[in-house]
Amino acid sequence: MANTDWRPEILRLTAFPAALHETSWQSLTGAPPAETSAQPRLDQSQEAGPFANGLLRLIKEKARIEWRYEALDTQDEPLPQLGPMSAELSQWRPSMLRWLEGAPALRRVAFGAVLRHEVPDKEAGYLYLGSLLNAVKLDPTASDFLYRINRPRKSQSHPEVSINRLTTWSVITQARFGIRLVGLHAGPLDVERYGLACRLELDINTAAEFTGTFQPNELPGIFKELVDLGTEIAEGGDIE
Predict the structure, then answer these.
(1) pTM for this structure?
(2) Residue ranges per domain, the chain?
(3) How many Cα neighbours within 13 Å face the side chain of 48?
(4) Within 10 Å of residue 222's Cβ, how many Cβ atoms?
């Protein structure tokens, strides 16, 4: 049975243009961003604004463009997350495909996600991950588990391209940290704990060994393939 319990903290499209290209938050959304920032020394700028159930952030660097759909950080949600993965992808992916249709030729493209599934305790978290990691014998009484693996596959749409399927699996303690001020000095660190969660980080990307470029008419297809591979892992586990 497919696992549909993951909820995203972040969904990400990362693009590496073959040549300099200018894009903007407004060109995709039709509205000005709610916030902008720039770090000239790093040759980086950011634009962000409300999108669907969260925040859409555009990060621009000289050789990289990144679109990130993030959960909103609110007081009502101390550890923000979006809704079910399939529902959030259906909100975000059409906008990314629309941007890719007008994007320049790309050297590489990636789909990334940070996903979370809350569990009542560590043992339940290890049992949950154990059901998704066929290659690992996971003892629920163990601790400090972190499993990271890349299982490359040949692209179905571009057989000359290898796709990295990099995943990182863990069980984390969810907490929020704050600094208490005592007069003019920082006091003890406040730590608020909110339970535990299984965490899955996806980085599904076209391998750097490919020396060609993806043309604009090819980009929606290759990105759909990357998203489908990430969804397959989230639903079925560590699949070879």
Answers:
(1) 0.89
(2) 7-236
(3) 16
(4) 20
